[in-house]
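[09:14] KT: can someone run the structure on this one? pasting the chain below
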Amino acid sequence: MSDTRTREYTERESEKHDEETVDSEETSTTETKRRPETESEVETETETETHRCPECSGNLIQDEARGETVCSDCGLVVDENSIDRGPEWRAFDSAERDQKSRVGAPTTKLMHDKGLSTNIGWQDKDAYGNALSARQREQMQRLRTWNERFRTRDSKERNLKQALGEIDRMASALGLPESVRETASVIYRRALDEDLLPGRSIEGVATAALYAAARQAGTPRSLDEIERVSRVDRMELTRTYRYVVRELKLEIEPADPEQYVPRFASDLDLSDESERQARELLRNAKEEAIHSGKSPVGLAAAAVYAAALLTNEKVTQNEVSEVANVSEVTIRNRYKELLEADGAGVLA
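[09:31] RB: done, structure tokens below
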């Protein structure tokens, strides 16, 4: 009798346990189904709050012309100075839009192909910085060779490539800015287009173009400085320069001695007061017309030396001579004339 009761009790307990297990599974399933609905509801509420006015819960609109986010109901400016991610140009039809659209680096006159062709690097490394295998290096070398052949397909492009490389080399040695290099490249391209090169060397025309561009830009270099970095002698440089200027009808003013003063003063580590005094000496010399027929480089060097004397700065004639690349005799003769024109001849 006791065994029968025990069996009935055990069966009753197992049935109860099964019912509890089923109930817990149904509860967890219901919670799982409800959870995504709750998350989506939260996201929807967040988006709704973002696109609603914080004052009147009205709709927010984007004013792209003013870069503002404004409520359409109450006019509250919620956000301003938003970033315009569009292009800086405007187009009124599809043709104009296609014409103004651009990608990649800007074109430049400093390269014979204006920078529009492909350049293959010489590092022999992939995008992750890993070294290439021997077979890949050999393949890349063949690609570079054919790429160079396609970039300079005719004699005119080869000529232009050599000349622009020469201009860049000399400009770097002379410390000229990129704007001067760009102007020199344009002058050389014009000379090449107008067939001025037959009978003249590429280096000579390139040097003349750089000398003319430096004078046009107001950062002139003396013929001695140009000759020092060029591969042509002074006589060929001057003859080619006159020919290029005459044929291309370049408007180049005579070199102003004041344009050399900042560079000389900077190389000699002089003060701003000395530079200002040197400019004043040169202006007085122009008024007295004593600068006519004299080298502007020599006048500038003499003015810098005289200004250093007037401001009690220690500079020797030898130091100025080395910086300006003129003789000490020229500096002694010119600085006395400048001081006399300025009325300070007592210091001479």
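[09:33] KT: thanks! Residues 26-48 have pLDDT under 50 and may be disordered.
[09:34] RB: yep, looked fine to me
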